Amino acid sequence: MEGREMGERSLDWMKQAEADYRHARNSRSMGDCDWACFAAHQAAEKAVKACFQKLHGDAWGHTVSLLLAQLSKEVAVRDRLIDRAKILDKHYIPTRYPNGFDAGAPTDLYTSDEADNAIAIAGEIIESRRSWTCTSAARGPREPTRRPKLSHGPRPVRLHGEGSAGVALREEYA
After folding, report:
1. Domain 10-173 bears CATH identifier 1.10.3710.10
2. Of 19, 33, 107, 156, which sees the most CB atoms within 10 A?
């Protein structure tokens, strides 16, 4: 599909964000705190990407705090929310892989307090996203003529121990 632009799909992204949020709460209620943390991360990431879609942009990467920082160039994002997103960022890989820790499986290492906190942060991001849609505090509604594309550039090779937070986003216009 090179050269062909995809349609605006913010509603699809938001629907999936809400489904992931529901999954996080359900996992927490079942005692699967590792999956609750990961699903909360996914819910937040997809809610932020829904906003980029609504603003006619593309966002790449999985580091929610970096995505929010980039989004703050277009809409009013509280610094505190970006800081809280850093908590979610830490749940992207180690929640799923035993080699994220020296010993033990993630299912044995995540706590209900961590799950509750991750779910609360994801909920804050989802609620904040509703106020960001298509409105910039500085410029009003965004003109759809320029299409920002956020990317990591060429896909980097990740060395052992390097996480997605080490890859900076850059803004391009197609």
Report:
1. no
2. 33
